Amino acid sequence: MRTKLRVAAYAVCVRDDRILLARSPAPGGTYEWVLPGGGMEHGEDPLDTVVRELDEETGYRVEPTGLLGVDSARHTFPREGLRGPRDHHALRIVYEARIVGGALRNEVNGSTDLAAWHDLTALPATRIRLVDVALTLWRDRPANGRVHVPPRL
């Protein structure tokens, strides 16, 4: 089985009891809400990754203000064409960040198509698990930077 490690950096931006999320296309023509951020480029520092990704996906310039923690997840993806199944390991570095400039806008020709603020008490049901992990890290601030968030059914 082929293996893939993807390291990415994300930011929790909360303002006025609202969190900034981005919308990403999902399988089957649906959409899901994700934490703004994304994959590191080779040689890139994670702090630079999160700043670049937030600008690309939301239009905001951010200043990371703290490291909240790390999330690690593995998934097996079924056969992809002739290549067979893939064991995918996602290592996600989660920062807290504050907005220091820019203006909210949607990404064009990227991995997301919409950026929006969402009330912390009314999060969209179509969100990925990382949103819940990141909010738990942000609220609880565990010393080891890890939390267990069971999957939503």
What's this model, at a glance?
The chain has 153 residues and is of the alpha+beta class. Helix content is 16%, strand content 46%. It has one domain (2-140): Nucleoside Triphosphate Pyrophosphohydrolase, CATH 3.90.79.
Q: Strand order across the biggest sheet?
A: 5-1-7-6
Strand content: over 45%
CATH topology term:
Nucleoside Triphosphate Pyrophosphohydrolase
What is the N-to-C succession of helices and strands? EEEEEHEEEH
The general outline is globular
> Which spans of ≥5 residues are poorly predicted at pLDDT below 50?
none
Q: Largest sheet, described in full?
A: 4 strands, mixed
User: N- to C-terminal separation?
Assistant: 28 Å
CATH architect. name? Alpha-Beta Complex
Helix proportion of residues, in percent? 10-25%
- CATH homologous superfamily descriptor: Nucleoside Triphosphate Pyrophosphohydrolase
Q: Which structural category do the helix and sheet elements fall into?
A: alpha+beta
> Would you report the number of β strands?
8
* Whole-number mean pLDDT: 93
**What is the CATH top level name?**
Alpha Beta
Instruction: State the helix count.
Output: 2
Number of domains: 1
Rounded to an integer in angstroms, the radius of gyration calculated over CA atoms is 15 Å
Provide a descriptive summary of the structure in words:
This protein is α+β, with helices and mostly antiparallel strands and 153 residues long. It has a single domain (2-140), classed as Nucleoside Triphosphate Pyrophosphohydrolase (Alpha-Beta Complex). 16% of the residues lie in helices and 46% in strands. It has helices at 46-58, 129-140, and strands at residues 2-12, 14-15, 18-26, 30-34, 37-39, 60-77, 86-102, 114-119. A 4-stranded mixed sheet has the order 5-1-7-6. Strands 2, 3, 4 and 8 form a 4-stranded antiparallel sheet that branches. A hairpin with a 2-residue loop joins strand 2 and strand 3 (18-26). The mean pLDDT is 93.
